[in-house]
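Notes for week 9. Today we move from apo structures to complexes. The key idea is that a small molecule is not decoration. When we ask for a structure prediction with 2-acetamido-2-deoxy-beta-D-glucopyranose present, the ligand SMILES becomes part of the input, just like the chain. The input block below holds both the sequence and the ligand string. Read it once before you look at the output, and try to guess where the molecule might sit.
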Amino acid sequence: MGTEGLLSPWVLWLLLWVQPCRGAAEVRLADGGRRCAGRVEVKLQGQWGTVCGYSWDKDDAAVVCRQLGCGVPLEAPQYGHFGPGSGPIWMAAVQCRGTESALSDCTYAEWGQTDCNHRDDAGVTCSGFVRLVGGDSPCSGSVEVYDRDQWKAVCDSHFGDKAAEVVCRELQCGTTLSVHGAAHVGEGAGSVWDRELQCVGNESVLSFCPTGAPRDQPCTHGNGTHVTCTQYTGFRLVNGSTACAGRVEVEVLGTWGTLCASRWDLSDAHVLCQHLGCGFAESIPGGGHFGRGTGPIWRDSFYCEGTEAHLGQCPVTALGASLCSHENAAAIICSGPARPMSLRLVGGGSRCDGRVEVFQHGTWGRVLDEQWDKQEASVVCRQLQCGEAEAAYTPVRAERGRGPVGLHGVRCAGHESNLSLCNTSLLASAMAAGIAEDVGAVCWGSRRVRLADGAGRCAGRVEIYYQGRWGTVCDDAWDLADAAVVCRQLGCGWALEAAGSARFGEGSGQIWLDGVNCFGAEAALWDCPAEAWGQHDCGHKEDAGVVCSEFMALRLENNNSCSGRLQVFYNGMWGSVCSNSMTTETVSLVCKELGCGNEGNQEIILNYAKLSGTAWLDHVECGKSNSSFWQCPSDPWHPQSCDDLREETHITCNGKSEPSRHQVLLSTGYGEMQRRNPEGL
Ligand SMILES: *[C@@H]1O[C@H](CO)[C@@H](O)[C@H](O)[C@H]1NC(C)=O
Ligand SMILES: *[C@@H]1O[C@H](CO)[C@@H](O)[C@H](O)[C@H]1NC(C)=O
Ligand SMILES: *[C@@H]1O[C@H](CO)[C@@H](O)[C@H](O)[C@H]1NC(C)=O
Ligand SMILES: *[C@@H]1O[C@H](CO)[C@@H](O)[C@H](O)[C@H]1NC(C)=O
Ligand SMILES: *[C@@H]1O[C@H](CO)[C@@H](O)[C@H](O)[C@H]1NC(C)=O
Ligand SMILES: *[C@@H]1O[C@H](CO)[C@@H](O)[C@H](O)[C@H]1NC(C)=O
Ligand SMILES: *[C@@H]1O[C@H](CO)[C@@H](O)[C@H](O)[C@H]1NC(C)=O
């Protein structure tokens, strides 16, 4: 490019040098795909504009990176590398020493009627200051900061909850879900940063937090920090008569909306009640009980076990979810905040089994007894609305409580409606000479079913939680009617297959049921005729399995499984994915899901031929906070919006395949099934 034409206007600009003597002007980086890279934009007189790239260099870029808390400049592309901006070109001939704290502190010419063109807008790629590595998404992983040309691990003891809040906010990942020491430090395991972060918590980015010399001993690689952020930044119940009942509203990255009720269940509701300090969920009224929702409608479906501390810890899917109306808003009635003699069961596999704790004097305390049996357990189960008591027990040493004791000795007749109606003022003489120990209860409501080792919640070995322990089901007489009950119970649709002979591997522990013979309409597997619990003549090599219609899988159809036509298995058949609004995150998540590396390219196909078979999905729009393909929002299943082959998605991933579990699972005949049953429904 010639320079004469560029130099002459500079003479004019020299007359326009302005000395900065005002507050720092805001800057941002646009169209670089992340916060710390892009076209430089600056806000003057209340309007965003760009910076001319002539004479733009790394010293100037360094100031932008510093002002944004983005580490150091890696590149300072001069001319329109990140595409042309719009609006005024506010600055030209920028000259920074490199040590200024804001771009507007540098000398520059104010640019009025301009020769500089938006094609020449200046850009910056900064290193960034903090990242999370080695997790399933950019929003979870080991914390690393950029210091002196390399990424370094941050020591667990030099990093607090406040710093985690700042990191989640800076990475646009929402709020902190968990912070804990990481056994091994992420990728590379280079050096460890030798500073301690002293964030207040309100800093907008981590590099604005004060740092200091560590107070503790220096740490080693065994002491990294693992942070998981969640985009669910708030929850509230609205239009109920108390704060513990109402329609569920969820804040996603700062925007409040209504949660769709289509997959909302009691286990999800328990998690939310508990999180809000509202006890447990008594019911989930439907039909617009608390009025219609407002704001955007979130179609995320949660699959909680009921023991999680936060909805963000439950698996989530959104892919293919049906549209939802404001009338169909999720709602809950929780039991309410803890009050004297409220109970809870802790450490079990559900809210209805575990060690008993009682709320006394404003805190949860242990219950100790030396003659604890089913009469007392019955009262506990009744008070918690968990059904009949299945067992009363004293937890093994490792499961005993450590906190204060709330209640010492209790005698019930068994019919009391709650524990405060039992005799809790026992005389010393009434207590035998036994040793008082922690007590536990298993209630009927703790029974659960799950499908294990089948790559997804809707296919696998059938396992039942009974008497506080997981066990399996024997395949004698196991058929589709039995499988149908399991699929319905799990919200997994209809049964595609009742598998026998430990198709999904051998389980362990008890074999709880044998000779199961359902009609098919039962609400739960244990409502079906069968041998008595635990009575069987089977071994684990006969463990029963199920594949349900909501079981989903992915493949790249080709002779090489890391490249080809993207297909999704759903409702018993493979179908294509249309490529409208395909994002780079979607492509990456497909490659990750298939064990084919963590990035890929979308291939362009120039074939006008008509699509063969079903198209299952369109407008799959994964974002960077999504940690699996199944979480990504999309049009509802079966969109019928792509009809020729050019609109199908074809992907080539950067890695090689390790055969995954569902490929093995589906190599056994679902291709055939698709041919026999082309409609699949
Ligand atoms: C952050 O909080 C501290 C005190 O808690 C306050 O002095 C400071 O001004 C706050 N900073 C911002 C950016 O709000
Ligand atoms: C580092 O981890 C080891 C055990 O993994 C622990 O003993 C040590 O106290 C930790 N150091 C710091 C500074 O946290
Ligand atoms: C609250 O719920 C009642 C029904 O229980 C309904 O009549 C009312 O319109 C609702 N209010 C709002 C603001 O949604
Ligand atoms: C226990 O039952 C009594 C009588 O029904 C009731 O007054 C009391 O509030 C109940 N306590 C708890 C903790 O539920
Ligand atoms: C509780 O048990 C003690 C000792 O057995 C007995 O003396 C007392 O009367 C009982 N209290 C109630 C309210 O039943
Ligand atoms: C795999 O596909 C490529 C082109 O798609 C073809 O050239 C090659 O022969 C195929 N290899 C095998 C083993 O089928
Ligand atoms: C998935 O990403 C989309 C697009 O960024 C976002 O709207 C949605 O909240 C994310 N969902 C989850 C569960 O991360």
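The chain has nine helices and 42 strands.
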